[in-house]
Amino acid sequence: MIFRRDRFGLGQKDAPPAPGASAGLPRFAVDATDDIGDAAQGMHARSPARARLALADALSASQPVTSRERLAGRIDTLAALIAAIEQQRAHVVLYGERGIGKTSLVHVFAETAREARYLVLYGSCGVEARFDDMFRTFASEIPLLYHADISPTADETEHNRSFADLLDEQPVDPRELADLFQKIVGTRVILVLDEYDRVADPAFRRDVAELIKNLSDRAARVQLVLTGVASNLDELIGFTPSIRRNIVGLAVGPMSEPELSEILARAEDATGLTFGPDARNLIVKMSAGSPYLVRLLGNRAAGRTLDERRDQVSGPDVIAGTEAVLAEWNAGLPRRVQSQLARPEVRGAWPMLIAAARASGTPDGWFGLHDVAAEANGADTSTIRRTLDGFTGEIDLFDREDGLDGREPRYRFRTQGLAQLLGLSAALARAGR
Fold first, then answer.
1. Highest mean pLDDT: which of 31-40, 56-65, 199-208, 360-369?
2. Is the domain covering 335-431 a CATH 1.10.10 domain?
């Protein structure tokens, strides 16, 4: 075996190459079992292999935070969510921009609620979500022993049954479900409907609103928590006055700079790496309040640091990591779009495209001329309209939808991910000044 020295001052044993494999080919640094091998036995916790494993947990951008130990910030929002459930007995809607941390927050909330012996059931909504399917699944996860008519000393056969066993084969409706859930005793149940904005079926949304009203009217021990992309409560649940008094809406906004820095500080504690002041400032500024971007950029920069056997993340690491992210995002665009972005007329309108990207952070991606004007440092709407209309024909970067009754048109980027790429490109350009 060969030992090498690194900037951590620790020996790290190379794993032997597989028989017949080239020793020069890349290999995984850590086993899928999270075991870093016999070479790590007795080694300091800050070995490179352990640092990589910790980095994958501390700064994962592809998975939500699922434990309180890894959650940074959001203390006030979590406290308000708990109070709405515990003190007000209300149903809760969490709303905000995409990638702002709603799913992470609701996972940590669920962990906290389970510690208080709530039964928390989680469902992720999709375009094809159906009310009967989702709530029948929820009912199947509620043990029948929580039913008011079942004795705690019931026959053992009751132990394997659930509330779903009391539903017939006909599609369940909100009133029937509320009647059934009214019978819950011995616990309180929280049903989480994550990514509620993705639901396309208006009947599903209507039935959920009706269920909320019926559960509240019956004082049932079941509360719903909905999360979704929206800029206000009406965008997510519609204008439904009959349930407004039963709902608490909590906006999940951009994180403050100290909260974003806390994410990096927790990663430092976990990995043994440090983020230099310039690196920390770059990541926080370019992330613009997004915990997703902090984790993504921090992960890439820290990974580069580990690759080079250093223990401090530098500004150049952040720049290189961000450039790598942008290169990947750009490579994921259709070749047609890549060619269009390289055209001189498009490059010449770059500031307007950046303003449009910032204006596109709505739930459905649509935005108007005045939305762009608010981001374009005073550009008049006629100039904005000419520019955007110029990119809806041969250069088809935008979809356009004409307004009714003489109202202004609205626009949307045709290619998913393009707005995010433009926004991060602009942030990188500002960082390099």
1. 199-208
2. yes
